[in-house]
Write a structure and sequence with these properties.
Largest sheet: 7 strands, mixed
Order of helices and strands: EEEHEEEEHHEHEHEHEHEHEHHEHE
Helix content: 25-40%
Number of domains: 2
Number of helices: 11
Oligomer: single chain
CATH superfamily of the largest domain: Medium-chain alcohol dehydrogenases, catalytic domain
Shape: globular
Strand content: 25-35%
CATH topology of the largest domain: Quinone Oxidoreductase, Chain A, domain 1
Bound molecules: NADP nicotinamide-adenine-dinucleotide phosphate
């Protein structure tokens, strides 16, 4: 089969479209014929060798989430049949014509959902849900500030915060992205290139500040997010798209406003067994029409390098999908 292989860290050119052996069914794992695979920003960091301190072992095939049909079942797999339409979440190997997925990461896909839609759900919707609801305990009538509203995580977070009954303020880097955030349900969208988002949050909340912040950018955005929070505010860090680091003096930044800062990593939640029930709940909400996927573009698997370049240049609003 064809797959994308990364043999060395680097720019998009290290994403090679190659022939590799088909995966064999294994204990409690199914072979899924991939019909669509989603790209996440973490895939770019893994390709560059900077993810989690550069620990991604070479060579590897990127791809944490796919949608397709079950082609073969390994020993001990229960509740699945060959031909089932599924969403698969995996540690590696999604950018390929076939993927080996542990049964714990396989979800039956609603009939009306397309493969392109299905593959874009797990990473960003689980992260947004768990960061806002579990880590920050977002309540109805609170104000949530969602950084990078046009990111994959952002488009999920705007919807999840609205569903929780919160007022949503979001930021994005262009008027076009801001308009699309408003269409998606955000109450306010701030183009941070034109306006200071701390001042804007203060104006919108009449100086009360945000109750909850979903922070995925890092650097100055993290520091200014703390300044945009009100008393007893809760901020959850889910990413560091800017690549900038932070140092924090808790006394001056947190103490005087009684702020809480947490971090969330989906991999740790999956390892702890917490993702499955939330994914089932998310799929119910999709079936009820209360959530929707936002797909910006699809690229053929053979053109993964161009797809990474597109995401790296911040051109996407929502998700970018690969089709084998
Ligand atoms: N913790 C977890 O388990 C988890 C799970 C999923 C994702 N994440 C993280 O969450 C973040 C978002 O992921 P994603 O896949 O949704 O990202 P994405 O779709 O690639 O969007 C990222 C957006 O961030 C904005 N941004 C602001 N400042 C930036 C900068 N200096 N450099 C690059 N982008 C900047 C850009 O939008 P504008 O042009 O509008 O500024 C960009 O399009 C990433 O950091 C990712 O690693 C973490």
């Amino acid at each position: 089969m064809k797959a994308i292989r990364v043999q060395e860290y680097g720019d998009e050119s290290v994403l090679r479209y190659e022939d590799v052996p088909d995966p064999e069914p294994a204990q409690r794992r199914a072979v899924v014929k991939v019909r669509a695979a989603s790209i996440n920003r973490g895939d770019i960091a893994r390709r560059q060798g900077t993810y989690g301190g550069g620990l991604t072992a070479l060579p590897f095939t990127p791809g944490w989430e796919v949608a397709g049909t079950v082609e073969a079942l390994g020993e001990g797999v229960e509740g699945l049949a060959v031909g089932d339409r599924v969403i698969g979440q995996l540690g590696d190997g999604g950018y390929a014509e076939r993927a080996l997925v542990h049964e714990a990461g396989i979800y039956k896909m609603p009939d009306e959902m397309s493969f392109e839609e299905g593959c874009t759900i797990p990473v960003v919707f689980l992260t947004a849900w768990l960061a806002l609801r579990k880590m920050c305990r977002l309540q109805a009538n609170e104000t949530a500030l969602i950084q990078a509203g046009g990111s994959g995580v952002g488009v999920a977070a705007i919807q999840i915060a609205k569903l929780a009954g919160a007022r949503v303020i979001t930021t994005a880097g262009s008027d076009e992205k801001c308009a699309r955030c408003l269409e998606l349900g955000a109450d306010h969208a701030i183009n941070y290139r034109d306006k200071d988002f701390v001042q804007e949050v203060n104006r919108i909340t009449e100086a009360a500040g945000a109750d909850v912040v979903l922070e995925s950018v890092g650097g100055e955005v993290f520091e200014k997010s703390l300044a945009a929070m009100g008393r007893y505010g809760r901020l959850c860090v889910v990413g560091n798209s800017s690549g900038q680091t932070n140092s924090l003096d808790p006394r001056t930044t947190l103490m005087f406003k009684n702020l809480s800062v947490s971090g969330f990593y989906l991999g740790a939640e999956i390892a702890a067994g917490g993702a499955g029930p939330i994914m089932e709940e998310l799929l119910r909400l999709f079936q009820q029409g209360k959530l929707r996927t936002v797909i910006d573009r699809t690229f053929p698997l053979a053109e993964t390098a161009a797809a990474h370049r597109y995401l790296g240049e911040r051109k996407n609003f929502g998700k970018v999908v690969l089709v084998p």
